Amino acid sequence: MDYLADQQFPVERVAIVGHDVKLVEQVVGRMSYGRAALHGASSGAVTGVLIGWIFGLLSWIEPLLTSLTLAVYGLVFGAIVGAVISLVTYALQGGRRDFTAVQHMVPSRYEVLVDTEVADEAARLLQQREGTSGDVTGPPS
Hints:
The protein is flat. α2 packs antiparallel against α3 (about 65-95). By secondary structure, the protein is an alpha+beta fold. The chain has helices at about 1-5, 35-55, 65-95, 120-130, and strands at about 15-30, 100-115. It contains four helices and two strands. The protein is about 50% helix and about 25% strand.
């Protein structure tokens, strides 16, 4: 794809299709009460800041000062509420999920599809590239 884009190929006419997709969960650490509280506090703080800032902008008198003040209050309140909710949720799980993980989708193979009108040009560009790997075929007949 990058090579085609470098050759000024119309990449908006290309689709990349992943086949046989698997969900992979990468474990990144151990979950504890402290970590649960920290995660909850950080997500609650962000939510609180945004809500406080938006409500502050609705003020008719001194909207900047009001929005900053409400954003700080939202940060503190959101962090406290987020930490409490996260701690309660973690405690109710009873040790069933004592780790943190990141999930992502991984296909076993990719297929690059192009529109019929530009398929010959894509095949020509890929064939003239040195070390082309994969199946480069023209449009289906």
